[in-house]
Amino acid sequence: MHFSSCLCALLVALVYQVSGMDTVIGLYGETIEVPCNNGAPKPKDLFMTKWKYDDGDLLTQLKDQDASVIATDKYKDRVSMAENSSLLIAAATLKDEKTFTCMVVAGADISEYPVKLLIHKAPTGVEITALATELEIGKPTQLGQCRTSDANPAASITWFKNKKPLVADGKGIIISSNVKVDEATGLTTTSSTLQYTAEKGDTAALFTCGALNTLSSPVSFTVTYPTERISLHVISKGPLMEGANMTLKCKADGNPPPTSFNFHILGKVVKVENSDSYTVTDVTRESTGEYKCSIIDNAKMEDSKNITINYLDMSLSPSGKVMKSFGEGLALTLQTHASGELKVSWTKDNGKLDSSPKFDKLTYSDSGKYEVVVTMGALIKKDSFELVVEGVPVIRRVAKRRSEDGQHKVLTCEAEGSPKPTVAWSVNGTSADESPYVNGKITHKLTIVPTVNLTVVCTVSNEHGQDTRTINVSTLFEEVRMDKQDSSDEGDTTKLVVGVIVGLLLATVVVGLAYWLYMKKSKQGSWKTGEKEDGSTEESKKLEEKIEEKLEENSQKVEV
Question: Model-level pTM?
Answer without folding.
Answer: 0.48
